[in-house]
From TrEMBL:
Organism: Crocosphaera watsonii WH 8501
Modified-residue entries (Phosphothreonine), positions: T198
MF (Gene Ontology): ATP binding; ATP-dependent protein folding chaperone; unfolded protein binding
NCBIfam families in the record: PRK00290.1, PRK13410.1, prok_dnaK
Alphabetized PROSITE patterns for the sequence: HSP70_1 (PS00297), HSP70_2 (PS00329), HSP70_3 (PS01036)
Recorded name of the encoding gene: dnaK
Protein name: Chaperone protein DnaK
Listed HAMAP family: DnaK (MF_00332)
Role noted for this protein: Acts as a chaperone.
Length: 740
């Protein structure tokens, strides 16, 4: 099995972390950022882009760029509010009432789970790149107030991404894991989590390795994006009043307004006033129109007054459910980028009367907690017990449409509860079990999770048959319902899959399509990397050739220059014509040429090192004219042919000799000869030259007649070792290779 990671799948940004050496580590993406924007898009070529690259194209390509999709997961189209539909891309409903996101570029529709799966796949690939091993499992966080349908949708997104979702964990619970891991003393923590699209507040008791969630509450349709929208509406209303144009009906203008609003909100967290400038926001008959205005922090806080009021209700509810007062809270942990706003900190401070703890990074703490939970499941982290709760009540619809709650909210999970029900009509042989989730008294006001039927009940007067219905919630918060007739023992058990907006067939289809997309993306990436590598190789070859030319001269590199320039031209031509086979061949040939050039340069440096420091200085000052090197004939007075080097490093007169080894290696590898003719190769077996002639410094070599000592006008010659004088009339014996 591969590695298991922790993933914070956020509305605005997502983070992936992993346990290494018993410590959680946040993994940076390929752009070097520790958070990845939860944005998915398709560029003009139809290629999939995720993260920062998708975010960059949002203004010019708004219909094919999707963000904030987490809010649509696990929901039906009628459940959406008009404000949530106000996005630059197109949202529609299918024949089953589910949400579909239209992609004009590919001419197809995506489910929100598919879009989220592409984000999860991106995070898993970044983790694989960092770890160097495949990632097969994940612990994914969800808002604590997600219902069963939204949790099922998150699990489906993980399956589509090719991940085994080992655990679904609440975001505030994960944050408390990250904060309280090193805490030894027992304390009560309030986790205030304001993300981009959701809001949660949880009360936990931490101590002795036990993390117990006492209560949780929240709002899945309230987040930082709603604060951004207040600025967008303010700008749009001002522009509508002045220019009579509603920018919210223009997709590109709406996207630019959204980005400017988010930037202004972030700036107002640190300064008291910010300028908003949007040139050429639209055009009318009078010409181009611009937005140039100023927003102050008190004005922004006044725009968001009702949103702040909505935050107070979940805090009060969580404290009441936990049976705690604000004075009993020991620490307040802020999670999510929205908690950086000064008015949010002031709200928390007014309730708890304590300074919020800012020792944890609000953007990364949830992913860190998810990684710790993955370590608990893998056995890397021991002596930690996590006790989570179910956020909403679960029950059945009874006669008259009234909800009978079996599991109240904030019940510690995993949990199993059951109750006895009976028939409502005489001789009734079948009952329908309708599972709902919510806090309302009437079933129609709650979330319907699914229906199933129990048949084969013996006919009897109403109220006589006894049907036992049991609810079983696992550690992920996924519900399983069992109904059993106590008279016949007939039983019907079902995992509530109806809560998911996707059928099993749709999930399998999306998994296959995701695999096809992954293969296409891999091939496209390999093709791009191959082209980039070929271009980089041509630049590297030219730089290497330039450096060697400066060190050894143009004569040394002339042969290599012709080969490199020809291969570079062939590579560029094959790139233009998209001929991969020809590109591979030319690239391999160029790599071979560079290898030979590198080897030749190394041999040159080795020869210089063998000469010694004084010889190098002498050659630098005097020069290196090879025509002046003396020639030592075979059989001379240096010794016999077996125990004396044929071309010693130095003659008696300090002249350097030829390096026979270097000559043979150059000829073998086909590089241009620098001191001997190409045909003059020495034959070790016969101890002579192949051409039958003696070696010469250059092609225009002198005759094999030895140099005379003293000069020609003298009456005699000296032998090489000057041991004896030879009369001038004596001649050279070619057969014995010596003087007469």
């Amino acid at each position: 099995m591969g590695k298991v990671v922790g993933i914070d799948l956020g509305t605005t940004n997502s983070v992936v972390a992993v346990m290494e050496g018993g410590k959680p580590v946040v993994i940076a993406n390929s752009e070097g950022m520790r958070t990845t924007p939860s944005v998915v898009g398709f560029n003009k070529d139809g290629e999939l882009v995720v993260g920062q690259m998708a975010r960059r194209q949002a203004v010019l390509n708004p219909q094919n760029t999707y963000y904030g999709v987490k809010r649509f997961m696990g929901r039906k189209y009628p459940e959406l509010t008009p404000e949530s539909k106000q996005v630059p891309y197109t949202i529609r409903r299918d024949e089953y009432g589910s949400i579909k996101i239209k992609c004009p570029r590919l001419k197809k529709d995506f489910a929100p789970e598919e879009i989220s799966a592409k984000i999860l796949r991106k995070l898993a690939e970044e983790a694989e790149r960092y770890l160097g091993e495949p990632v097969t499992g994940a612990v994914i966080t969800v808002p604590a107030y997600f219902n069963d349908s939204q949790r099922q949708a998150t699990r489906d997104a993980g399956r589509i991404a090719g991940l085994e979702v080992l655990r679904i964990i609440n975001e505030p619970t994960a944050a408390s894991l990250a904060y309280g891991l090193d805490q030894e003393r027992s304390q009560k923590i309030l986790v205030f989590d304001l993300g981009g699209g959701t809001f949660d507040v949880s009360v936990l008791e931490v101590g002795d390795g036990v993390f117990e969630v006492r209560a949780t509450s929240g709002d899945t349709q309230l987040g930082g994006g709603d604060f951004d929208k207040r600025i967008v509406d303010w700008l749009a209303e001002q522009f509508l009043e002045q220019e009579k144009v509603d920018l919210r009906k223009d997709r590109q203008a709406l996207q630019r307004l959204t980005e400017a609003a988010e930037k202004a909100k972030i700036e107002l967290s640190g300064v008291s006033v910010t300028d908003i400038n949007l040139p050429f926001i639209t055009a009318t008959e009078e010409g181009s129109k611009h937005i140039e205005t100023r927003l102050m922090r008190p004005q922004f806080e006044d725009l968001c007054g009702d949103l702040v009021s909505r935050l107070t209700r979940p805090i009060k509810r969580a404290l009441n459910d936990a049976r705690l007062t604000p004075v009993q809270i020991d620490e307040v942990v802020l999670v999510g980028g929205g908690t950086r706003m000064p008015m949010i900190k002031a709200l928390v401070r007014s309730f708890i009367d304590k300074e919020p703890n800012e020792n944890v990074n609000p953007d990364e703490v949830v992913a860190v907690g998810a990684a710790i939970q993955s370590g608990i499941l893998a056995g890397e982290v021991k002596e930690i017990l996590l006790l989570d709760v179910t956020p909403l009540s679960l029950g059945l619809e009874t006669i008259g449409g009234v909800t009978k709650k079996l599991i109240p909210r904030n019940t510690t999970i995993p949990v199993r509860r059951s109750d006895i029900f009976s028939t409502g009509e005489n001789n009734q042989t079948m009952v329908e079990v309708h599972v709902v989730q919510g806090e309302r008294e009437m079933s129609k006001d709650n979330k319907s999770l699914g229906r199933f039927k129990l048949t084969g009940i013996p006919p009897a007067p109403r109220g006589i048959p006894q049907v036992q219905v049991a609810f079983d919630i696992d550690a992920n918060g996924i519900l399983q319902v069992t109904a059993r007739d106590r008279t016949t023992g007939r039983e019907q058990s079902v995992v509530v899959q109806g809560a998911s907006t996707l059928s099993e067939g749709e999930i399998n289809r999306m998994i296959n399509e995701a695999a096809e997309f992954a293969e296409e993306d891999r091939q496209r990436r390999e093709r791009i990397e191959k082209r980039n590598k070929a271009k980089a190789l041509t630049d590297q070859a030219l730089r290497r050739l330039k450096d060697v030319t400066l060190d050894f001269g143009t004569q040394f590199t002339s042969g290599y220059r012709r080969q490199i320039e020809a291969l570079n031209a062939e590579i560029m031509d094959s790139l233009d014509k998209d001929d991969e086979r020809r590109l591979d061949r030319a690239q391999a040939d160029l790599e071979d040429v560079l290898y030979e050039l590198k080897r030749e340069v190394r041999l040159q440096y080795e020869d210089e090192e063998d000469e010694g420091i004084f010889d190098s200085i002498r050659r630098t000052l005097v020069g290196d004219d090879e025509d002046d090197y003396p020639y030592t004939p075979r059989g001379s007075s240096y010794g016999n042919d077996y125990d004396t080097p044929r071309y010693p490093e130095r003659s008696d007169y300090g002249q350097p000799r030829y390096d026979e080894r270097r000559y043979d290696e150059r000829q073998t590898y086909g590089s241009p000869p620098s001191r001997y003719e190409r045909n003059d190769r020495y034959d070790d077996e016969y101890d002579e030259w192949d051409s039958g002639d003696r070696p010469s410094p250059r092609s225009r070599r002198p005759s094999p007649e030895p140099r005379r000592y003293p000069p020609k006008d003298s009456d005699s010659y000296y032998t090489r070792d000057r041991s004896r004088r030879i009369p001038k009339e004596n001649q050279w014996d070619e057969e014995d290779d010596d003087w007469f």
